[in-house]
Amino acid sequence: MHLIHKPDIPSSEITDESLFFGRRKFLSAMGFGGAAMAVASSPLLACTNDAAGQASQDEKPNTWEEITTYNNFYEFGTGKGDPSKNAGNFRTRPWTVEIAGEVKKPGTMSFDDLLRGLPTVERTYRHRCVEAWSMVVPWNGVLLKDLIAKLEPTGNAKFIEFTTLLDPAQMPGQRSRVLDWPYVEGLRLDEAMHPLSMMVTGIYGKPVPNQNGAPLRLVVPWKYGFKGGKSIVKIRFTERQPATTWNMAIPSEYGFYANVNPTVDHPRWSQGRERRIGKLFQQPTLMFNGYADQVASLYAGMDLRRNY
Predict the structure, then answer these.
(1) pLDDT digits (tens, 9 = 90+) for 223-253
(2) What element of type H or E holds 246?
(3) Running DSSP on this structure, what letter comes out for residue 42?
(4) Which of 38, 40, 48 is nearest to 292 (CA)?
(5) Which of 103, 147, 201, 217 could form a disulfide with 3 if both were Cys (CB 3.0 to 4.6 A apart)?
(6) Where does the pLDDT of residue 57 fall: very low under 50, low under 70, confident under 90, or very high at 90 and above?
(7) Cα distance from N-terminal residue to C-terminal residue, the chain
(8) How far, in Å, CA of 52 to CA of 283, rounded?
(9) Phi/psi of residue 229, nearest 5 degrees
(10) Higher pLDDT, residue 8 or 65
(11) Half-sphere CA count of 243, side-chain side, radius 13 A
């Protein structure tokens, strides 16, 4: 079953957080472990210590209000509250995605056809912004690896590129030259195939709101948030590393890999600590955002200071 975006979601229709997590507790109490719980909740928040032995971080998910009103989505403005104010009338239906490059069957697919037949998952991930703030978000969507398998890239494909909609009439932030539009991001294909990588269609069991990247966005939880392209309209497989928006704009500050690394500071601030939205005090930033056990092998032998 696929999530269909509605322009506005009344508060009465939003799944209450206590109910959302109560369902998980119910499954566990009834003995539905293993595969059932792997879908109902993420096993990826079990990291209790970082390399320096820091205490575990508070992993309580952020509220719907926090997640949907504090955003980076420059297509709707550069202020954290701009997306929620400016994206309300953004049209996400009908929606099509172009499939291009090193793929067996290039073409254009509707949103529903793109995701049809793919198993859906719910996963709660840490989200870390390069600006040193963070959230914990319960996402809904499909595993990127499942989508890639459906799209059948050729043996020449080494990278995957994601492009956001270009529509200044609907996206007022694109009327400025703050970035070179449209927004483009990319991954190595092995990163995209990792089972943590998701194409997201919802939050808290409801369709992803416009300000959070409706109807389709990328989530790669061990990378800084700017890697997560929103409102995606094109997926291209390529043999060469794609040029990405922030890396082209300020290469000294935004690398292609963008792995969360507390030992490599942003040129203008430390990345060693972060402020969890809704919390008063900062907390230590974890290597790979706490997913080192799962993803560090992807970068074995790489200089992570040079490949930032």
Answers:
(1) 999 999 999 999 999 999 999 999 999 999 9
(2) helix 245-249
(3) -
(4) 48
(5) 201
(6) low
(7) 38
(8) 13
(9) -60, 145
(10) 65
(11) 6
Give the count of beta carbons closer than 10 Å to the beta carbon of residue 106.
13
Q: Round to whole Å and give the CA distance between 230 and 73.
A: 8
The dihedrals phi and psi of 207, each to the nearest 5 degrees, come to -55, 140
The CA–CA distances, whole Å, from 266 to 129, 132, 136, 254 equal 11, 9, 22, 8
How would residue 59 be classed by pLDDT, with cut points 50, 70 and 90?
A: confident
pTM recorded for the entire structure: 0.83
The predicted-structure confidence for 154-172, as pLDDT tens digits, reads as follows 999 999 999 999 999 999 9
**Of 46, 181, 211, nearest in space to 123 by CA:** 46
* Tokens 């009103």 found at: 69
At 88, list the tokens: 């309300």
Q: How confident is the model at residue 58 (pLDDT cuts 50, 70, 90)?
A: low
pLDDT given at position 37? 32
**In one letter, which amino acid is 290?**
G
d(CA 211, CA 203): 12
Q: Going along 118-252, which residue ranges are E strands?
A: 120-128, 133-143, 159-164, 184-188, 198-203, 206-207, 217-219, 232-238
Q: If you ran DSSP here, which 8-state letter would residue 54 be given?
A: P
Q: What is the distance between the alpha carbons of residues 239 and 206, in angstroms, rounded to a whole number?
A: 36
| CA dihedral (275, 127, 292, 239) positive or negative | negative
Q: How far apart are CA 135 and CA 275, in angstroms?
A: 9
Alpha-helical runs (H) found in the chain: 17-29, 34-40, 64-69, 82-86, 111-115, 144-151, 189-192, 245-249, 292-295
Q: How far apart are CA 23 and CA 284, in angstroms?
A: 31
Domains of the chain: 14-299 (3.90.420.10)
How far apart CA 153 and CA 103 sit, in angstroms, is 4
Q: Which residue do the tokens 């389709």 mark?
A: 216
